[in-house]
Automatic annotation (TrEMBL), chain A:
Xref: CDD domains: TRX_Fd_NuoE
Recorded catalytic activity of this chain's protein: a quinone + NADH + 5 H(+)(in) = a quinol + NAD(+) + 4 H(+)(out)
Single GO MF descriptor: 2 iron, 2 sulfur cluster binding
UniProt protein name: NADH-quinone oxidoreductase subunit E
Record flagged with keyword Glycosyltransferase: no
C-alpha cells in the first residue's frame, strides 16, 4: 500500500530536527515541545504527514499515540494536505452581525469549495476560525499570516489575487 | 477593506486617538498616535521599567504581593478573581523554589480584542508586568501562552524580550538585584479551551487541552507539578503602574460607586458608529461607553440588546445601559461583566440565528471531556438550527431551558458550558417570541381529536 510506504519513509529533515531540538530547551520536559514540533513539520511541509507522529515521538521520547492525540486535538494542526494558502474566516458572533456569512458564501462561490475543503489546484484551503480579535473591523479573515478587516463580499475576489 | 501588516497593526484604533495621560490611562498613555509598537528606548523614555527598578531595588517580595492585594486589582480575563488573593495562594514554603508565572494570552473569546492591543503595541508593558509579578511570586521562569493567530503580537513580544535581555532587564541577576527571570513566548495551535487556566497548563505541557480537576489548584500543583500562577495579559499590565504610583492613586481611578478599582480596557462593537476600545475608569455607565465613545447605533439601526463582555455573558436590554461597568454593577442587572468589551445587537438580527452561531462556536470548541458539555452543546445547536428553519417542535424551547439548567455552573467540569448557556438563557428570557416563531406551523396547531 502506497500510504504504508509513505509512512515508512517519513523522516524529519535536519532542519526540522534541529528546530525541534532548539524548542525542547525552552521547557522542563521535552513533551512540551510536541505542539511546536508539529508546527515545525507543518511549516516545512504544509501539513503533518502520517509517520510524523512516530518521528516526533521518538525525538521527544514520548509515545507516538500521544503526539497523534495532540495533532488531532488542535484545530490549526492539519493532518491532511492543505492548499498553499490557508483562508481563515472568523465566525464569531461579532463577525456574524457584521455579515460574515455573506463573505463565506462569496468565498465558497469564488473557490468552488465548502469550509474544510481545498481547491483542486491546491491553491486555497478554507476553514472557519475562532474570533480573530479584530472585532472593531468586522467581518474579519486571515489569509496565511495577513489579517483583513471590514471585508466586503464584492472585494473577496481581489483579495485572493495576491495569493498565487 | 483594511489590510493589517507590520506597517499597520490590526489593533490600531480609537485607543490611539483619544486624549490620554499617565495619571488616568496607566495602560494606554504610552501608545503612539500612529499605532506603531513602543520599543525599549521609547518605553524607557516614557518612564518604562521605573516600576520594575523600584520593585527590585526597594521592595520585599511580600510587599509587592501586599501592594497588589491592597490595590484591589482583579483578573481582567473575564472571571474577575482578586489578583492579590491568587498570588497569596502560592506556597509559603521556600523549599518549593521552582515556580512558574504563566501569562494567559490565549485571547479567543468572541468579541475580545483588548490583549491584542497591549501585546502588539506595548509589548514591554507586559514584559515589565511579568518581571515585577515574577519577582513577587518568586518565579524563575515565565511563559506567555499566546494564540497562534496573533502573529504580530508574537513577533513584537519576542523582539521586546530580546531587547529586555540585552538591556539586563531579563536573564540573570536583573538590575543587580540577584533575581533571575527568563521569559518565553509559547504559541498555541488553536482551540478556545486553552484559555481555561488548567487546560492552558496541559497545553503548555504538550498535552491535549482538557481542563484539570481542581483542587489541587495551580498555585499548589501547576505546570510540571510545580507552583504556578496564571494571569491574564491586561491583569499583568496593571501591575507596573500600581507599583510605580501606589495604591491610593490606583484606587482613585474608578468612578464613585464602583467596587472594582483602576481602569479597564472597555469596548463596543456591532453596528455602532465608532466601534473600538478605550481605557476607561471602572464604574462609568454602559450608556456613556455606548453613546459617548461608540457614538450610539449607526443610522438606520436600533439597539435591540447588548452583551457586556464576551460570548459567555448574558444579553441585556437597552434600559440596562444605565448599569455601571464594574462586576457588581453588571451583576445587579443579571449577568457578568466578563471582559468588558460589549457587543451591540441591532434590530436586523434574529436572536435564534445569533444564538445558533454562538452555540455552534461553543459546541465546536468543547474539549469533549465531560458529557454535559460534549453532548449538550451540539444538542442545543440542533434545536436552534431547527428553530431557525421554522421547523422546531413545541418542546424545543423547554428543552433549551433544560439544557441551560443542566449545563449551568457546578454541573460541568469547567466554565465552558456555563458560559455557553448564559447567553442562551437570557436570549430566551427576553426574546422568547423569536424562539416560538421557529416552531413549525403543524406543531403549533392544537391536536385534533381522531
Amino acid at each position: 500500500m502506497s500510504t504504508l510506504i509513505q509512512t515508512d519513509r517519513f523522516a524529519l529533515s535536519a532542519a526540522e530536527r534541529s528546530a525541534i531540538e532548539h524548542e525542547m530547551h525552552h521547557y522542563e520536559d521535552p513533551r512540551a515541545a510536541s505542539i511546536e514540533a508539529l508546527k515545525i513539520v507543518q511549516k516545512a511541509r504544509g501539513w503533518v504527514p502520517d509517520g510524523a507522529a512516530d518521528a516526533i515521538g521518538e525525538l521527544l521520547g514520548i509515545p507516538a499515540s500521544d503526539v497523534e492525540g495532540v495533532a488531532t486535538f488542535y484545530s490549526q494542526i492539519f493532518r491532511q494536505p492543505v492548499g498553499r494558502h490557508i483562508i481563515r474566516v472568523c465566525d464569531s458572533m461579532t463577525c456574524f452581525i457584521g455579515g460574515h456569512e455573506s463573505i463565506l458564501e462569496a468565498l465558497q462561490h469564488q473557490l468552488g469549495i465548502a469550509p474544510g475543503q481545498t481547491t483542486a489546484d491546491g491553491r486555497f484551503t478554507l476553514i472557519p476560525v475562532c474570533c480573530l480579535g479584530n472585532c472593531d473591523k468586522a467581518p474579519a479573515l486571515m489569509i496565511d499570516d495577513d489579517t483583513f478587516g471590514d471585508v466586503r463580499s464584492e472585494g473577496v475576489a481581489a483579495l485572493l489575487e495576491a495569493y498565487p | 477593506m483594511t489590510r493589517s501588516t507590520t506597517k499597520m497593526l490590526a489593533s490600531l484604533g480609537p485607543a490611539n486617538r483619544v486624549a490620554r495621560n499617565e495619571e488616568t490611562h496607566p495602560l494606554t498613555w504610552r501608545l503612539r498616535d500612529d499605532g506603531q509598537p513602543v520599543w525599549l528606548d521609547e518605553y524607557q523614555q516614557k518612564n518604562g521599567y521605573a516600576a520594575a527598578r523600584k520593585a527590585l531595588a526597594e521592595m520585599a517580595q511580600a510587599d509587592i504581593v501586599q501592594t497588589v492585594k491592597d490595590s484591589g486589582l482583579k483578573g481582567r480575563g473575564g472571571a474577575g478573581f482578586p489578583t492579590g488573593v491568587k498570588w497569596g495562594l502560592m506556597p509559603a514554603d521556600e523549599a518549593q523554589n521552582i515556580r512558574y508565572l504563566l501569562c494567559n494570552a490565549d485571547e479567543m473569546e468572541p468579541n475580545t480584542w483588548k490583549d491584542r492591543l497591549l501585546m502588539e503595541q506595548l509589548p514591554h508593558l507586559l514584559v515589565e508586568g511579568m518581571l515585577i509579578s515574577a519577582r513577587a511570586l518568586k518565579a524563575y521562569r515565565g511563559y506567555i501562552f499566546l494564540r497562534g493567530e496573533y502573529v504580530d503580537a508574537a513577533h513584537n513580544l519576542n523582539r521586546a524580550i530580546e531587547e529586555a535581555k540585552a538591556a539586563g532587564l531579563l536573564g540573570k541577576n536583573i538590575l543587580g538585584s540577584g533575581f533571575d527571570f527568563e521569559l518565553f513566548v509559547h504559541t498555541g495551535a488553536g482551540r478556545y479551551i486553552c484559555g481555561e487556566e488548567t487546560a492552558l497548563i496541559n497545553s503548555l505541557e504538550g498535552r491535549r487541552a482538557n481542563p484539570r480537576a481542581k483542587p489541587p489548584f495551580p498555585a499548589a500543583v501547576g505546570v510540571w507539578g510545580k507552583p504556578t500562577c496564571v494571569n491574564n495579559v491586561e491583569t499583568l499590565c496593571n501591575v507596573p503602574a500600581i507599583i510605580g504610583n501606589g495604591v491610593d492613586w490606583y484606587k482613585s481611578l474608578a468612578r464613585p460607586g464602583s467596587e472594582d478599582m483602576g481602569s479597564k480596557l472597555m469596548g463596543f462593537s456591532g453596528k455602532v458608529k465608532h466601534p473600538g476600545i478605550w481605557e476607561l475608569p471602572f464604574g462609568i455607565s454602559a450608556r456613556e461607553l455606548f453613546e459617548d465613545y461608540a457614538g450610539g447605533m449607526r443610522d438606520g439601526y436600533r439597539l435591540k440588546c447588548w452583551q457586556p463582555g464576551g460570548a459567555g455573558t448574558g444579553f441585556l436590554l437597552p434600559e440596562h445601559l444605565e448599569a455601571q461597568m464594574y462586576a457588581g454593577g453588571i451583576a445587579k442587572v443579571g449577568t457578568r461583566m466578563g471582559t468588558g468589551l460589549a457587543l451591540a445587537v441591532d434590530d436586523t438580527i434574529n436572536m435564534v440565528s445569533l444564538l445558533r452561531n454562538m452555540e455552534e462556536f461553543f459546541a465546536r470548541e468543547s474539549c469533549g471531556w465531560c458529557t454535559p458539555c460534549r453532548d449538550g452543546l451540539p444538542w442545543s445547536v440542533k434545536i436552534l438550527r431547527a428553530l431557525e428553519r421554522g421547523q422546531g417542535s413545541r418542546q424545543d424551547i423547554d428543552t433549551l431551558l433544560q439544557l441551560v439548567d443542566f449545563l449551568g455552573p457546578g454541573r460541568t467540569f469547567c466554565a465552558h458550558a456555563p458560559g455557553a448557556v448564559e447567553p442562551l438563557g437570557s436570549a430566551v428570557k427576553y426574546f422568547r417570541h423569536e424562539f416560538e416563531a421557529g416552531v413549525a406551523q403543524e406543531a403549533k396547531a392544537p391536536m385534533q381529536p381522531a
